[in-house]
Amino acid sequence: MNEQEIGRVRALAGEFVRDRRTEGYADRTEEYIKWGVDYFVEFLRKRDEEKLESITADTMHKYQMHLFNQLGRRGEPLGMASQAKALMSVRVLFRWLVRRGYMLADPSSGISLPRRKKPLPRGIMSRREMDRVLSAPDVDTPLGLRDRAMLELMYSSGLRNNEVRSLTIADVNTAEGEVRVKNGKGGVDRVVPLGGIAAKYVELYIREARPAILGWHEDPGVLFVGRFGGKMNGTTVNRWIVQRFAGRAGVKKPVTAHGVRHTCATHMLKGRASLRHIQRLLGHRSLESTQVYLRVEVGDLKRELKRCHPRERVHVVEDLRPPAQGGKLWN
């Protein structure tokens, strides 16, 4: 495909992304769509199709094979999740092109998305581990008080990394114990509860630590500010707050900011909270996403089986020696 037609494809893709914005899609969704479209455009550069309308189902099949064999930035094959996102971006683009009358038929309609593995959540901490992490920051310093307030809020309300970084002071009602999460995953707003201990630390941070950290810097408008008064990025929260204090607390697991969210959900489930309530707390669209925490509980189930099942009790373990020579295992 020549550069002139490539430019036309990019222009249509840009118009498509702007349409998504008016429909309330989140910024992160736009980024995924742009990323997927860029992958497809680079593939088209090496193809013989003269125009966008020349793309066929066979082209899309070859694109899927191309993604399967494509190497990512680290020289490793693209994961199934990345392949699925790239294909989904192109599918929604073609549907839009047909709907707007730029194409008569959708060549991507026959694409089957690769099956994505659903791994168990990682870095889930025990209650003791989580307590040690929460106690690790030095609350006698402004930054330590900020870190304690952020960790308490994340653990209490199960917020994502980007959600806690996007909060404003007005989003947190410590008196009522509520947090308003705006433009969460999928562009959905929700209100979640804030525990009493977390509310006290957040209130103390707002009153004492935040003004001290800001100093003479201009207020960036977010609740949690960086050491130089600006907005914090995801790496700062993940590496310099969560992982740093997990290390200080002696937690050997690969803990991340998302792991704190998983820990919140798992501890809620252990406390006999219903899946529906956990779904609302985490902002999952479907209960299927929340049910992964049931799989996490298999460790507890094993311990209960060992403690309670009559065949697992030490005093009734049978002699498992093989039968004597000539003996039979059954009659």
| Total beta strands | 3
Rg calculated over all Cα atoms: 26 Å
Q: Just give the CATH class of the largest domain.
A: Mainly Alpha
The CATH architecture category of the largest domain equals Orthogonal Bundle
User: Which structural category fits the helices and strands?
Assistant: mainly alpha
Strand order of the largest sheet: 1-2-3
Strand-residue fraction? under 5%
Mean pLDDT metric? 82
Query: Which residue ranges are poorly predicted, with pLDDT under 50 across at least 5 consecutive positions?
Result: 316-320
- Distance from N terminus to C terminus (CA atoms, Å) equals 76 Å
In the CATH hierarchy, the third-tier topology of the largest domain is known as: hpI Integrase, Chain A
Helical proportion, percent range: 40-55%
> Mind telling me the CATH superfamily name of the largest domain?
Intergrase catalytic core
Count of discrete domains: 2
- H/E element sequence: HHHHHHHEEEHHHHHHH
